[in-house]
Amino acid sequence: MRSVMLLLLGAHLAYAGTHSLRYFYTAVSGDIDFPEFTVVGLVDEGQFMYFDSNTKEAVPKTEWMKQNEGAGYWDRQTQGLIGTHQNFKNNIQVAKERFNQSTGVHTFQQMYGCEWDDQTGATNGLRQFGYDGEDFLSLDLKELRYISPVQQGFPTVQKWNNNRGLLEDNKNYYRTVCIEWLKKYLQYGKSSLEKTVSPQVSLLQRSSSSPVTCHATGFYPSGVTITWMRNGQEHHEDVEVGELLPNEDGTFQKTSTIRVTPDEWKNNKFSCVVEHQGKTKTANEIITNPDTVPMGIIVAAVVAAVLLVVIGVAGFMVYKKKNGFKPLSGSDDGSNSSAIAIPQA
Predict the structure, then answer these.
(1) Quick one: 148 and 233 in the same domain?
(2) Name one GO cellular component term (predicted).
(3) What is the mean pLDDT of each run of 10 residues along the chain (345 residues)?
(4) Are 138 and 127 in contact (CB under 8 A)?
(5) Range of 71's domain?
């Protein structure tokens, strides 16, 4: 079975600087006990809306959305996404036929949105489709055309690139509509999105022969850098950086693991330096527990496992590490929605 992992997609954003609005759509076919279709909306990596094909209802996930958008907004979102669900069911069937597949579990995904730098005014739009965790189709907004890295995507590329109305709608959405909605959402959630919470940093090791893990948790926003130091110099050998993961309280956690022998650790001065929002925290004393894995990492692993079963609930997407299915953007079905209409493949 193909090895997959879960990755929270999105730039590492602070409130001042670059902001993002992103949507993640996932359709699944096969014998699976979770929704066929899920949608998550994120502003600056924080989830603000959710929809799935079981509940058939778009709902707010933040207080600032509940307070600023009424029933009409959520009704429009719901009706649009019910239609998109059917479209995605068709598209996943098209993809299965093109890849000559009739059985098994398969996913068809879209990631789209926009970015805005509140200091320079620069904007960017992103849109990408994936099938079974692999790149399938993406929009080159600069050239205003779709491209595909696989032969199975070529018929869709030809079809969509010949639809000038679709391309112009995409351009208008990414360069104008999406940015307007992003700014509106940022204003709605300004007090929440401005918050800064510093990380807690620990060095963890299961036994003296195990790798040492630097665990940074409880921080917001998500932008963080973890660096290993050896005798005062940056050290990059035998270091593996973990993925950014969400905590239940809306903060984030991340790990970096180094493999060193007990003698190396004893005879050298190793430390972990975590940078967040211009501040640094350093840890050099190991917490060792030979019997259990630290609770914070257990929680992160459980979250990741649950998200594999309920794809999209926290903005996670199935991702094949080798190629990296990265975030892109979408287009709009009207001025009353920040989401995008999806054409058939």
Answers:
(1) no
(2) external side of plasma membrane
(3) 30 59 93 89 90 96 94 96 92 92 91 93 95 94 96 94 95 96 94 86 91 93 92 95 83 93 94 94 81 47 40 35 33 43 59
(4) yes
(5) 5-192+306-319
